[in-house]
Amino acid sequence: MAGFKFKTFKKTMDKNAPSLKRFLNKLSKNRPKDLHQVAAVKDQQVWGEIDCLACANCCRTMSPTFTSKDIKRIANHMNISEKHFKEKWLLKDDEGDWVNKIQPCQFLNLDDNKCSIYEVRPKDCSGFPHHHKKPMMEYVHVYKQNVTFCPATYKFVEKIKEHYSAKS
Ligand code: SF4
Ligand code: SF4
């Protein structure tokens, strides 16, 4: 992703997202039998093209949810109490999940887009953008949202769309 600029790519995502969302709608109504195999191949291809360190849009604009295990692990790593960690950094959202008070995430190093707690980061972060989830169709709502936020998901869905368009 040499010379990648998120702002420029965002324009492409916004322009093409409606067609990718329509494709995802169709896919959820008529799931191809080989979808999981195709998705695994396309996901691998995506990571040959995308460098998250050139992007970090997820860490800049979204908050992960922090499970109790995440909070315990990260607070231990920081040598502070879980209570202190929650008071300092987190709040409960409308669904009752612990999320960041601020964005960009307090653990993102804005100079190089690296996560300062990478080894102990929340499970939500290590699993993002959730391309491996099964059954995949249960995550269509996530992909529909992320085609305008995450270049990796945009490319993932675009490649799956191209694959099935070429076959039809
Ligand atoms: S996961 Fe997506 S939004 Fe996050 S840094 Fe990678 S490409 Fe960007
Ligand atoms: S904890 Fe790390 S990976 Fe997760 S949002 Fe914050 S900076 Fe990004």
Helix and strand composition category: mainly alpha
Instruction: Note the total helix count.
Output: 8
What would the average pLDDT be, to the nearest integer? 95
Low-confidence stretches: none
Order of strands in the sheet with most strands: 1-3-2
Task: From the alpha carbons, calculate the radius of gyration and give it in angstroms.
Answer: 17 Å
Oligomeric state of shown chains: single chain
Q: What would you call the shape? A: globular
The SSE order reads HHHEHHEEEEHHH
> Which range best describes the helical content: under 10%, 10-25%, 25-40%, 40-55%, 55-70% or over 70%?
40-55%
Strand content: 5-15%
Bound molecules: iron/sulfur cluster
Number of domains: 2
Distance between the termini: 30 Å
Record field, number of beta strands:
5
The major sheet is characterized as: 3 strands, antiparallel
Short key terms for the protein model shown above:
single chain, 168 residues, mainly alpha, three-stranded antiparallel β-sheet, two-stranded antiparallel sheet, 8 helices, 5 strands, 7% strand, binds iron/sulfur cluster
Topology (SSEs and partners):
Layout: H1 6-29, H2 35-49, H3 57-61, E1 65-66, H4 68-78, H5 82-89, E2 90-92, E3 98-100, E4 108-109, E5 114-115, H6 123-127, H7 140-146, H8 151-167
Antiparallel strand pairs: 1-3, 2-3, 4-5
Helix pairs in contact: 1-8, 2-8, 4-5
Bound molecules: iron/sulfur cluster (2 copies).
What can you tell me about this protein's structure?
The chain is 55% helix and 7% strand. It contains eight helices and five strands; from the N terminus they run H-H-H-E-H-H-E-E-E-E-H-H-H. The chain folds into two domains: 6-59 and 129-167, no CATH class; 65-122, no CATH class. The mean pLDDT is 95. The longest helix is centred in the first third of the chain and has 24 residues, at 6-29. Strands 1-3-2 form a three-stranded antiparallel β-sheet. A two-stranded antiparallel ribbon has the order 4-5. Strand 4 (108-109) and strand 5 form a beta hairpin. The chain has helices at 6-29, 35-49, 57-61, 68-78, 82-89, 123-127, 140-146, 151-167; strands at residues 65-66, 90-92, 98-100, 108-109, 114-115. It starts with 5 loop residues before the first helix and ends with a helix. The chain has 168 residues and is mostly helical.
